[in-house]
């Protein structure tokens, strides 16, 4: 399918991430994150939306939730949610995400790490937006859970996106909220993308 928007995918990693004690763990899946990330992906037209967990029972839980809203009564009751959840893929590890994107695009994606901390080699939103929109690079935005992405993941990334700051020292946004801000800054319509046609709007009624 031809795409008028850049090829940016997102992946929510439940492993390898840190816990509070700085140990590598696999975090538990939150179905609310799946709902909200799916709606973000559908709204901003990301090329893919991946949930990464090595835990089989967690993948089964995600599959059951997605099936509930995309098949049978759930799909009929809330078609817009069904449409959004069709964008999600649940996989075992990050390499499966990279392989899937490479297979579809013919090139491995540029990996973009996200973190609440500031790193010396952070890329700004303006610079990354140019990479995405002007250079048309195939990119994968990695979102962490727990206390952030493991250093091994950070080290293999091509870019580390600058952290989000508000007006106070508090810096602990929910991942789905942070993802929304990031996608709007990177893909949202601005003067730089005013030529992108605006499709008819559809809203999910009763969405929280």
Folded structure, characterized:
By secondary structure, the chain is an alpha/beta fold. It has a single domain (8-187), classed as SPOUT methyltransferase, trefoil knot domain (Alpha/beta knot, 3-Layer(aba) Sandwich). Helices cover 39% and strands 16% of the residues. The strands form two sheets. It has a seven-stranded parallel beta sheet, sandwiched between helices. A two-stranded antiparallel sheet has the order 2-3. A hairpin with a 5-residue loop joins strand 2 and strand 3. It is globular and about 50 Å long. The chain starts with 7 loop residues before the first strand and ends in a 21-residue tail after the last helix. The mean pLDDT is 90.
List strands and helices in order, with pairings.
Layout (H helix, E strand, L loop, with lengths): L7 E6 L3 E2 L5 E2 L5 H14 L3 E5 L3 H15 L1 H6 L1 H7 L2 E4 L2 H12 L4 E4 L8 E2 L1 H9 L5 E6 L6 H6 L2 E3 L13 H13 L21
Helix pairs in contact: 1-4, 1-8, 6-8
Distance from first to last alpha carbon: 31 Å
CATH class: Alpha Beta
What do we call the CATH topology? Alpha/beta knot
Biggest pleated sheet: 7 strands, parallel
Known CATH architecture: 3-Layer(aba) Sandwich
| Residue share in helix | 25-40%
* Shape designation: globular
What is the residue-mean pLDDT, rounded to a whole number? 90
Secondary structure class reads alpha/beta
CATH homology superfamily name: SPOUT methyltransferase, trefoil knot domain
Q: Strand percentage, roughly?
A: 15-25%
- H-E string: EEEHEHHHEHEEHEHEH
**DSSP helical segment count:** 8
The assembly state of the depicted protein chains is single chain
Gyration radius, rounded: 17 Å
């Amino acid at each position: 399918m031809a795409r008028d928007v850049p090829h940016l995918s997102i992946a929510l990693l439940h492993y390898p991430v840190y816990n509070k004690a700085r140990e590598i763990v696999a975090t538990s899946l939150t179905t609310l994150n799946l709902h909200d990330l799916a709606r973000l992906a559908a709204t901003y037209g990301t090329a893919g939306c991946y949930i990464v967990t090595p835990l089989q029972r967690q993948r089964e839980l995600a599959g059951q939730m997605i099936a509930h809203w995309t098949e049978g009564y759930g799909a009929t009751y809330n078609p817009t949610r069904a449409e959004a959840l069709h964008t999600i893929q649940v996989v075992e590890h990050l390499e499966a995400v990279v392989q899937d994107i490479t297979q579809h695009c013919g090139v491995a994606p540029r990996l973009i790490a996200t973190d609440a901390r500031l790193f010396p080699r952070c890329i700004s939103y303006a610079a990354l937006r140019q990479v995405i929109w002007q250079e048309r690079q195939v990119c994968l935005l990695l979102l962490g859970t727990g206390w952030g992405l493991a250093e091994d993941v950070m080290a293999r990334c091509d870019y580390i996106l600058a952290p989000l700051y508000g007006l106070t020292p508090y810096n602990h946004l929910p991942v789905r909220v942070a993802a929304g801000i990031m996608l709007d800054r990177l893909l949202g319509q601005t003067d730089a993308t005013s030529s992108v046609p605006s499709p008819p709007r559809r809203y999910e009624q009763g969405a929280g």
